[in-house]
Design goal:
alpha/beta; 39% helix; 20% strand; disordered N terminus
């Protein structure tokens, strides 16, 4: 292939066919994306992976020619897993950096206040996580979610799984007792709330939503132990002993980070508790889960919104871009395969790229309206439509 510069673009001639195509060269005026992520602190493990997912998407867009003839730039800041820092950084992105497009942060704890800043400034904010109902009950028009379920309803998939295992005989005796332990975090607490059937206090209103009787009741289980641990918790052996003393058949551990899940599972192994027929962990789709547990994870139930085997066909740069493309190209770029925490932000970035192409620019009001009109013509990502 030979390439020669041409006025107003590039002329590319393919030697084999002699076919000549002309593509416009990218301008010097970038489209600026911006995101605040927890690169240090409580949520740093996932936050760092989210950054890789965003950055890889930006790099792929630029490799494929940019958006509307313009290169893409990503501004990223470390919010240190702190809500006040997160808010200040998004305010700076909008008012000082003049970012064209915002990418959401990780965790409902950080996503709720960040999304308020976006809404007040009429800036679209697609959220890679932040699934707690409190985030979505405020009537906001500029926030969008790229996953399938609110956190409180996650337990419904565990009910379906238990029903299936029971019907097929893999669970011989019904599980009768349960322990629910959770991090003091919006997401983790929301999933736990669904299991026990608590109330959801909707943000910015006096309204509450009851989740009663809860998913444990749906599975015919009695709650025999419940515990919430604070951010920064480290006394995993004491917690594991308390769970063991309650002798639950089922354990739901709703954690804020994969590190918490790993720590608690290792603690349960250390105290020798193997009386539970099933353990559910809200984290575990990450590659380090199995790598660090070394077999302890066997039999633990997790939920995931992305899988290597699900080869959805998304779009990037106006052309098909499959999950297989994502895996292969990411692996080539980073020297390791991706997991869910890189795939989700990549899909977020895909949605915004399609919105910019769909509206012909970066007007956030138009992008908001375009996104709301997607029910019949969804954005196409590596996680599906």
């Amino acid at each position: 292939t030979t390439t020669t510069a041409a006025s107003g673009g590039e002329t590319t001639t393919t030697a084999a066919s002699g076919e000549t195509t002309t593509t416009e060269a990218m301008s010097d005026d970038p489209i600026v994306f911006a995101t605040s992520l927890p690169l240090t602190g409580e949520f740093s493990g996932v936050g760092s992976k989210h950054l890789d997912g965003y950055q890889f998407c930006v790099d792929e867009i630029n490799r494929l020619g940019g958006i509307l003839g313009r290169p893409v730039e990503l501004i990223k800041e470390d919010n240190r897993s702190d809500t006040e820092i997160t808010v200040a950084q998004y305010e700076r992105f909008i008012n000082v950096d003049n970012a064209d497009i915002l990418f959401g942060t990780f965790s409902s704890l950080l996503g709720q206040p960040a999304s308020s800043i976006a809404e007040q400034n009429q800036m679209v904010m697609p959220l890679p996580s932040s699934g707690a109902l409190r985030v979505w009950s405020r009537g906001y028009e500029y926030i969008f979610y790229l996953q399938q379920l609110p956190a409180e309803l996650t337990g419904s998939s565990i009910v379906s799984l238990v029903d299936y295992y029971t019907e097929t005989g893999l669970i011989a005796e019904p599980m009768k007792t349960a322990a629910v332990v959770a991090a003091d975090d919006f997401f983790a607490g929301a999933i736990a709330n669904g299991f026990v059937g608590g109330d959801v206090n909707l943000s910015d209103s006096d309204e509450t939503v009851s989740l009663a009787p809860g998913y444990l009741a749906d599975m015919g289980m009695e709650l025999v132990y419940e515990n919430v641990w604070p951010i920064g918790f480290t006394d995993w052996l004491t917690l594991a002993n308390s769970i063991a003393d309650a002798e639950p058949d089922f354990i739901a551990m709703t954690t804020a980070s994969v590190d918490e899940s790993i720590s608690l599972l290792n603690a349960l192994k250390t105290v020798g508790y193997n009386g539970a027929e099933m353990i559910y962990s809200s984290q575990g789709a990450q590659s380090e889960f199995a790598a660090e547990l070394g077999g302890t994870e066997s039999g633990v139930i997790i939920h995931a919104v992305w899988a290597e085997e699900a080869n959805w066909e998304g779009e990037l740069a106006g052309q098909p871009y499959t999950n297989e493309d994502f895996i292969n190209n990411f692996t080539a770029a980073y020297g390791r395969g991706p997991d869910e925490d890189e795939a989700i932000p990549f899909a977020v970035c895909q949605s915004m790229e399609q919105a910019i192409l769909g509206t012909g620019g970066t007007d956030n009001v138009k992008i908001k309206d375009w996104m709301h009109s997607r029910q019949g013509d969804p954005v196409k990502t590596i996680m599906g439509d």
